[in-house]
Amino acid sequence: MVVAGKIFKLREAIPLRTITAKLLDYKVEETVEEPPQEFTLLTEIVNLDLVGDRIRGLYTKDILIKISRRGEEVPIVKTLEAPFTFTVRGNNILLTIIGKKNWANYVANELSKIIFISVGGIVEARISPETLRQYHEENPEGTKVIFFDNVDIPNIDKLSLYGPDLKNTMLYSEYLSHGSIWYIVATSKKHGYVVGITRNCVITVFSKIDEYSFFRFVEDEIFPLIEV
Predict the structure, then answer these.
(1) Angle, nearest 10°, between helix axes 16-23 and 101-116?
(2) Side-chain-facing half-sphere of 106: CA atoms under 13 Å
(3) Distance of CA 204 to the CA centre of its chain
(4) d(CA 92, CA 172)
(5) CA-CA distance, 28 to 44, in Å (whole number)?
(6) β partners of residue 160
(7) The dihedral of CA 198, 54, 19, 80: what is its sign?
(8) 123/50 Cα distance (integer angstroms)
(9) Fewer CB within 10 Å: C terminus or N terminus of the chain?
């Protein structure tokens, strides 16, 4: 199963116990009318656990959707989930959220509101173009896809390369002269996972992996790439 997530960082490093206290028992109920019914939608944080230098938890949010049943649009409650981990790294705290980019962004902003009262306390983590290039060039035979952005050719927004041994192609050198590496798909030399990495820390593991292993992989292999 493909597992996707995104890494963020706290603009202010505050104690994990303070974060835990703010998130503990968080629960919000909302009543939504869908005549002739009334639904109670719940948003809460569950399974919160502070162990050592990390906090693990699960953000859940109910939404009302409609499904087609025998020609009728029937409202039902669907629960969205986002496992997350706050991890101390040096003088920083990094937040990893499992979920597609837009959902992870939403959850990061909601956690920021809980912890810092407003949006902006939690921001995107970043990998520099030079670091992502080095990650590729240290294991060029493992990279199968490269996208370049910040392209200086008029009317060209992005360039891409597909195939084995991309480092040793003339096009690779030429594209580097016109832009920066934005996204790669590569096989991790250490873990063997096929993974997609963007500079704004959207991480997609295409190999079979569970959530716990995803978090451990991100901490072990992706965290060292992040700008501090």
Answers:
(1) 100
(2) 12
(3) 8
(4) 34
(5) 6
(6) 147
(7) positive
(8) 22
(9) N
Model confidence pLDDT, tens digit, residues 17-71? 999 999 999 999 999 888 788 899 999 999 999 999 999 999 999 999 988 888 7
> Beta-carbon neighbour count of residue 223 at 10 Å?
19
The pTM for the full model equals 0.93
Residue 194 has pLDDT above 80, yes or no: yes
Tell me, what DSSP letter sits at residue 221?
Answer: I
DSSP 74-138: EEEEEEEEEEEEEEEETTEEEEEEES-HHHHHHHHHHHHHHHHSSTTSEEE--B-HHHHHHHHHT
Helix (H, G, I), strand (E, B) or coil at 164: coil
Q: Is the peptide bond before 36 cis (omega within 30 degrees of 0)?
A: yes
Assigned token pair, 46: 């569950």
Residue appearing with tokens 């590729």 = 136
**Residues 189, 191, 196, 199: what is their CA dihedral angle, to the nearest 10 degrees?**
-80
Residue the block writes with tokens 């953000």? 59
